[in-house]
Amino acid sequence: MSDEQTSTALSPTRDAALARPDFPFTRVARRLGIDPAEAEVALRDDDRARTAIARTVGEFLEADDARRAGRAPESAMGLDPDFPTGVGMALVGAAVLWEARDLVPQVALRVAKDHYEDGADELAASYIALVQESVDPGAESRDDAIAWAAQSLLVSVLQRSGDPAQAAEIARDLAAHAIPIDLWRDDDPSLPDDSMSWHGGAFVGGIPPRRDERSLSYEDVHDYMNTLLADMRREQEAEE
Q: b/e map of 39-57 (b: 16 or more CB within 10 Å)?
């Protein structure tokens, strides 16, 4: 991970989140496989937190691959009642908060697919936007493929819940770059040899990721964490 990724303007946001008296250190630590007794110390150590996030993301992807292949869950991750979508959302939130930008695209795409398949198109579009905001155009072929897969999923989202003309425009852009229209359906997207690198989503008209033109971006992380914390508090109160 580059220094640019680990020292950005979001550090004060993370510090502010961790300074909240109601930040759920124990719950987050459990999600990341950290000993709850060491939760606060571990989560205040950025390197340790990012290492835990990376490990847990790997476990999530492995368990989700098994699920998508129709295999019975064997890991604790796969048996979690919040798996896959809730776990994926939590991991995306952690990766955003701790600025582990390279870990966002794969998980966010899977969360977007789950939301789309559940009919939650606005949530799907938000996570599509987050995938694309987390990918540097042309930096890595794997990330290019994930970004294009998200773009192909956006066509399906817009066809069902958005502007058909915009969906058609994006579909033409996919074809012009030799990208399969159903690339998002692949569990591990890869690009054909004749395809072109991800262009960052910039073309005439732009792509508002939601009907209200909001996206779940890095700049929104503070509000996102506030919402996440509120949800966690409600769940804890319901369990008591």
A: beebbeeeebbbebbbebb
Cα–Cα dist 46/216, whole Å: 22
How far apart CA 124 and CA 150 sit, in angstroms, is 10
Q: CB of 124 within 8 A of CB of 115?
A: yes
Domain ranges of the chain: 9-230
DSSP state at residue 81: T
With contact defined as beta carbons under 8 Å apart, do 153 and 127 qualify?
Answer: no
Task: Name which of 208, 207, 198, 116 is nearest 153 in CA terms.
Answer: 116
> CB–CB of 181/174 below 8 Å?
yes
Q: Is 186 helix (H, G, I), strand (E, B) or coil?
A: coil
Is residue 207 within 8 A of residue 170, CB to CB? The reply is yes
CA distance 77 to 83: 7
Question: Which three-class secondary structure state does DSSP give residue 211?
Answer: coil
* Digit-coded pLDDT (tens) for 87-138: 999 999 999 999 999 999 999 999 999 999 999 998 899 899 889 888 887 6
Q: Which two tokens stand for residue 207?
A: 């792509």
The model's pTM: 0.80
